[in-house]
Amino acid sequence: MSKTHVKVIPLSAMVIVLVLVGWVFPSMAHALGLTINFGGSGTGRVEANSPGTDTLFILNSNTLDYDQNSSVTLTATPTGFGTSQSIFSSWTGCASTSGNQCTVVMDASKAVNVTFNLVPVNLTINFSGTGTGQVAGSGAGTDSFSIFGSQTIPYDQKVPPSSVTLTATPTGLGASQSTFAGWTGCPSPSGNQCTVIMSANQTVGVAFNPPVQRTLTVTKAGTGSGTVTSAPGGISCGGDCTEAYANGTAVRLTAVASAGSTFEGWSGGGCTGTGTCAVNMTAAQAVTATFTQNAGNQPPSVDAGPSITIALPNTAALNGTVTDDGLPTTPGTVSTLWKKVSGPGTVTFANASSPSTTASFSGAGTYVLELTATDGEFEASSSLTITANDASVRRLSNDLNADGTADLLWRNTLNGVVVAWLMKNAAIDTSGVLGGVSSNWQIMGMGDVNADSHADVIWRNTTSGAVAVWLMNGLTRISTGFPGSPSLNYVIKGIGDMDGNGTADLVWHNTVNGALVIWLMNGSTIANSGFPGRAPLQWQVAGVGDVNADEKADVIWRHTTTGAVAIWLMDGLTHTSTGFPGSPPLSYVIKEIGDVDGNGTADIVWHNKLNGAVAIWIMNGTKVAFAGFPGGVPLNWQITGMGDVNADGQ
């Protein structure tokens, strides 16, 4: 019988074997490298913490060793003070981040990146003066910019610090060109340029002055007669003998003697002789043209008067003048006669044989009338232009009684009563109470929504958003309609004829999403509505007006940060094109949009809220045809509206 042999292992030996199998000596653990890379323009430190190890602090890129599978928490703290103070920017390469902390799990060698940057510095540019201009900034490694008003621009600090070159350029055209006045607070100015080193916050000022203009005055002397004209235009003396020109303009004057007179020559302005007079407008200039009367009978002197603009059916008052030397007979008899030279309709004179008379017109348009005088031997003539505007085409937005003149609407803030003044020239022709409503109803404006030539009153309920329309006939309220109740996010920004059908329409702007909405009106009901587009909320609707004489109102926008003006040319509910006529300083506020010069296009009236100056842009489509400063008023006077109170179309 065989035997099984069993080898007996002592218990102490078994214990030793078990221990060797279940234990790994610390000296045999695998160490992994954690590389921490520093970046950015600033400085800082990183605190490294891992359970069972000492806390480590490092100030620049370094590699630390950690046991496999250990968890390491890195905390970034910026250093420095004052303008050298840094800020923590970011971690990358972490397993997870929380603010300035980064967690890394050492399952392999790892690399993380920490970024510290210097605290940004600000460049503040303050605009001053009553002129307009722009400042362009450029510099190595910096983004360029162009601003039209005061603004603060941030820069990252760099080593070495950024060098920024500012260039000031006046804006405007021709006689509307502003001038650069200078820098303040600039460490390195050079003409219209300023260089700034962005090692700390910097503030510089730039000033622009309004256009410099020089006045040229022409005087006629002597016993004869004649005319003096200028190139560029402005002088037609005759009637207009004074004109302001932009500084440095070269003006050429030409003199032409009337029949029976001789031009003797120039004096003043550096001019002599009888040829063309060249005047350099670097200062105010005065020039005299001398005419002498030839011997014997001279033609009559005739002046038809200045051009006139009227609103039909009004008549034009003609105030011509005729003088004569009494020859060829004594005492001499002069006959005069008015006639139509051109125009689309019939002209009827109250007394065509009188230099001072009135003329009526069968239709709207531009007419040229001529006054002729004869003394039996010589004949002389003078003409003037009459612009007859059709009152229905002009569609005065605030003419309650359809007499071609603007009227005033008043609201008592205590009891809600509405009173109207029907105006005649600058006087109150009659007045009356239209009614009263509660204070949560506010007047949004006036406009002829039913094409009866009488302005109607548009209301908005500030609580519900409801719109109400009072259809008016002078001082009488005919009826009231309620076309709708839009959300209070929508604000009425303009009332004008958007589609050229003779009725006023409502233009809405959504203050939350920038959407533009138009209601095309038919009386107190909405005939059609549409959404022509939207703009960023920095753009706000300043009003509506027909800037291109197509009898359809356009939308004028203003940028609340840059001051830029944009114009949407409209065709009903369609936005056809956009123009950018300019960027006045934000101290100028658009107060009114209307036809200031009677040429059928809406113009823009500005008011400077700092110095009270009033400026006017005469518009030609989306371009400024002419800009002027008619004056200024103290700041306790504010523009509340504009209208044609004397029916001259302006």
Summarize the structure.
The chain is mainly β and 650 residues long. The chain contains 2 helices and 54 strands. Helix content is 2%, strand content 55%.
Task: Describe the protein.
By secondary structure, the chain is mainly beta. About 0% of the residues lie in helices and about 55% in strands. The longest helix has 12 residues, at about 10-20. The chain is flat and about 130 Å long.
What brief labels describe this structure?
Immunoglobulin-like; 2 helices; 650 residues; flat; 5 domains; 5-stranded antiparallel β-sheet; mainly beta
Q: Uncertain regions: pLDDT < 50 for 5+ in a row?
A: 1-29
Query: Termini distance?
Result: 140 Å
Helix count, DSSP H or I runs of 4 or more residues: 2
Query: How many domains?
Result: 5
CATH topology of the largest domain: Neuraminidase
Provide the helix percentage.
under 10%
Biggest beta sheet attributes: 5 strands, antiparallel
CATH superfamily of the largest domain: TolB, C-terminal domain
Q: Tally of extended strands?
A: 54
- Mean pLDDT across residues: 86
CATH architecture identity of the largest domain: 6 Propeller
Shape: flat
CATH class value of the largest domain? Mainly Beta
The structural class is: mainly beta
Strand order of the largest sheet: 3-2-5-8-7
Rg over CA atoms, rounded to whole Å, is: 40 Å
Percentage of β-strand residues: over 45%
